Automatic annotation (TrEMBL):
<dbReference type="InterPro" id="IPR016181">
    <property type="entry name" value="Acyl_CoA_acyltransferase"/>
</dbReference>
<dbReference type="InterPro" id="IPR000182">
    <property type="entry name" value="GNAT_dom"/>
</dbReference>
<protein>
    <recommendedName>
        <fullName>N-acetyltransferase domain-containing protein</fullName>
    </recommendedName>
</protein>
<dbReference type="Pfam" id="PF00583">
    <property type="entry name" value="Acetyltransf_1"/>
</dbReference>
<feature type="domain" description="N-acetyltransferase">
    <location>
        <begin position="1"/>
        <end position="145"/>
    </location>
</feature>
<dbReference type="GO" id="GO:0016747">
    <property type="term" value="F:acyltransferase activity, transferring groups other than amino-acyl groups"/>
</dbReference>
Length: 165
């Protein structure tokens, strides 16, 4: 398996993968809208095979946030249903974290399952002081420099997230 940046040629397959992974179009449409709005900072795909035999296994996206620190939102994270629970999602999250560390970001926020995201260092306590419509036990932060430069303030995801309801 290889992890690489998403290309324009991957867009249709990424949409189909997100739709299949979540069993609905909401997340796939979110990815499309984030792409169209120019709010994607990083989009990675996990693939196996080469050339015409390449198969898309997973996808992760990091998007812009308005925040009192240099922060990104992680999500959606999707893995092809028949390849889930094989470490593909974890490899994508690790690759996304590594990228953000190399590019000077201070935090990543995620709305997701705490039992899954805690293994990467995400913590609901770190996100608790920030004002967000997603605040609660499933809203977590990862400090990329060891600690956050601030633990309070308003967070706003990219506008596409507002359509999620």
């Amino acid at each position: 398996m290889d992890i690489r940046p998403e290309t324009a040629a991957d867009r249709t397959a990424v949409h189909a993968l997100n739709r299949a992974a979540f069993g609905q179009p909401v997340e796939a449409d979110l990815v499309d809208r984030l792409q169209a709005d120019g709010d994607v900072v990083l989009s990675l795909v996990a693939v196996e095979g080469v050339g015409a035999d390449e198969a898309l296994l997973g996808h992760v996206l990091l998007s812009r946030m308005a925040a009192p620190l240099r922060a990104l939102a992680l999500g959606p994270l999707a893995v092809r249903p028949d390849r889930q629970r094989q470490g593909i999602g974890a490899a994508l999250v690790h690759a996304a974290i590594d990228h953000t560390l190399r590019h000077g970001w201070q935090a990543i926020f995620v709305l997701g399952e705490p039992n899954y995201y805690r293994r990467f260092g995400f913590d609901a306590g770190l996100a608790a002081g920030f004002a967000s419509p997603y605040a609660g036990p499933y809203f977590m932060a990862l400090a990329l420099d060891g600690d956050l430069p601030t633990r309070t303030g308003d967070l706003r995801h990219a506008p596409a997230f507002a359509d999620l309801g």
